[in-house]
Design brief:
Number of domains: 1
Structural class: alpha/beta
CATH superfamily: Metal-dependent hydrolases
Radius of gyration: 17 Å
Order of helices and strands: EHHEHEHEHEHEHEHEHH
Helix content: 40-55%
Number of strands: 8
Shape: globular
Number of helices: 10
CATH topology: TIM Barrel
Length: 257
């Protein structure tokens, strides 16, 4: 069975037909999925999904794209992260593609998440876009290796990948790895140590081939795994086993089903 390490099941595209989404997960050998929080206002919806479905887990955090939302402090994050179905802090990180004007507030918010993750002993789910150098610098400065975590939807080159791996982080690959023009992502997916590799959908975004351009869902993480198996000349079962084992090694508060 596979695990979709990053999806947004509370978003309307998926939440409005959740029973069908969960059924297709099972039919496609996806045994679990992580519902990623992007702000505190919608966190109750995220945690409710995890509470109501044994195969779903949750995170807590505020995405760097979100500006007009409750700003988290460490104590607030720690309070919400104490829930047994919350297995990580995030989605957090830096995004200089959408937010170019005042990056310092992003870095401050990122540091708050890192400190909370270290204090509660749960790993980080890190977003980085057009900001890899600063993302890694902040992680290093804050001693984020003490918490560990995953660089989600990884799209950077091998040099950046090695630095993240040196920090003890995992790399998670999305449907982008199936795109014909994703040569850099394919190269990293080939080179990443098998014991540090995760798969995800980031659904409802980034649907893999053959569903590119359509709404994504956790069932489609199978196509990510299939592409990685092809790139690495591995049996699909080996990728299933490795990525699932890696998931539970990183997210130690997730109970293996």
């Amino acid at each position: 069975m596979l695990v979709d390490s990053h999806c947004h099941l509370d978003f309307p595209d998926l939440a409005n037909h959740l029973p069908d989404v969960l059924l297709r997960m099972l039919e496609n050998q996806v045994g679990a999925a992580v519902c990623i929080a992007v702000n505190l206002e919608d966190f109750p919806n995220v945690i409710a999904l995890a509470e109501q479905n044994a195969q779903l887990y949750a995170t807590v955090g505020v995405h760097p794209e979100y500006t007009d939302v409750e700003e988290p402090d460490e104590e607030r994050l720690l309070s919400l992260a104490a829930h047994p179905k919350v297995i990580a802090i995030g989605e957090t990180g830096l995004d200089y593609y959408w937010q170019k004007d005042q990056p310092e507030w992003q870095r401050d918010r990122f540091r708050t998440h890192i400190r909370a993750a270290i204090r509660c002993g749960k790993p980080l789910v890190v977003h980085t876009r057009d900001s890899a150098v600063d993302t890694l610098r902040v992680l290093q400065e804050e001693g984020a290796d003490a918490a560990g975590g995953v660089m989600h939807c990884f799209t950077e080159n091998w040099d950046i990948a090695r630095l993240a791996l040196d920090l003890g982080f995992y790399l998670s690959f999305s449907g982008i790895v199936t795109f014909k023009n994703a040569a850099i992502v394919k190269e990293v997916a080939q080179k990443c140590p098998l014991d540090r590799l995760l798969v995800e959908t980031d659904s409802p975004y980034l649907a893999p081939v053959p569903y590119r351009g359509k709404p994504n869902e956790p069932a489609y993480v199978r196509y990510v795994a299939e592409e990685i198996a092809k790139l690495r000349s591995l049996d699909l079962d080996a990728v299933h086993q490795a990525t699932t084992d890696n998931f539970y090694s990183l997210f130690k508060h997730a109970k293996r089903l």
